[in-house]
Amino acid sequence: MVQKNILATILINNFNNQKFLEKCINSCLTQSYKHLEIIIYDDKSDDGSYKILKKIKDKRVKKIFNKRKKYKSSALNQFDAIRKSFLKARGEIIFLLDGDDFFFKNKVKIILNEFKKNKNLNFVQDNPIYFYPNNNQKLKKRLKEKYFVMHTWPYFNPTSTMVFRKSLLKKIIKDISFSYNSYEKMFFDARAYIYIHFFENNYKNLDKELTLYTQNVKGDTLSNYDQKNIIWWQRRLQYHQFVKKLFYKKRKFHFKFLDYYLTLIVNFFGKFN
Fold first, then answer.
1. d(CA 104, CA 95)
2. What is this structure's pTM?
3. What is the distance between the alpha carbons of residues 79 and 85, in angstroms, rounded to a whole number?
4. Would you kindly state where each structural domain of the chain is located, as residue ranges?
5. Beta-carbon contacts of residue 36 (< 8 Å; ≥ 6 apart)
6. What does the DSSP assignment read for 211-251?
7. How confident is the model at residue 171, as a pLDDT?
8. CATH number of this structure's domain 8-224, picked from the four choices 3.90.550.10, 3.30.1340.30, 1.20.210.10, 2.30.42.10
9. Predicted confidence band of residue 272 (pLDDT cuts 50, 70, 90)
10. Most exposed of 69, 160, 219, 230 (fewest Cβ within 10 Å)?
11. Which carries the bigger pLDDT value, residue 22 or residue 231?
12. Measured on CA atoms in the order 148, 174, 253, 248, is the torsion positive or negative?
């Protein structure tokens, strides 16, 4: 149960976000809700991130500098960063934030109120405002409940909108431990949302814009792929493979939708193009 002065933890994952990092951290430090800790995991950045982090003296901030060999996949590096940061978290409610995204001033307070109103609530996501730095454009995209499924191409909000009760995040990380070193095209938001959709009933899609999400148009996020692009279909196949393995580990029956077989066919013929 969420107490009145609950400690909230914000896990920031950073890799070469020098341009946005200081603003990202300040968006946490200036939250209207003050009882929080901020854990920043820097994943061997080689830009100016280190200097920015070294300047931070706020006692609420903990810094972790990864010095080990990284995975070849940015998705696996993100998952690794979240797992290791979570081990240091003391808060009951856990917020995730990428180093190029920002929280609006009242986000933590508003989200915590949702947990206070419903003691059984385990997960909340808000609607982000998408920020395109190349043309300084901001765009609202609302999550539609009907897209939060696996028999069509799953649509869900990005990592920085995700807020967990600590017990749920711990359970997810443990239950999907089989995927620590695999599914290199699947970012953590996809893994967690799939798990929540099938195995967690107590979640809420909060219809409020509380996060500014920086859309990297040159990145490898799903939204940047045209459906004719084979890489898009390869990632789609990994989603289905992940679901299949997850159900096997949970000893549950999984019905394969038509979309699964369509994805297999596209990937098979895509190898020869």
1. 13
2. 0.89
3. 10
4. 8-224
5. 7, 8, 9, 10, 28, 60, 91, 108
6. EEEE--TTS--GGG--TT-HHHHHHHHHHHHHHHHHHHHTT
7. 97
8. 3.90.550.10
9. low
10. 69
11. 22
12. positive
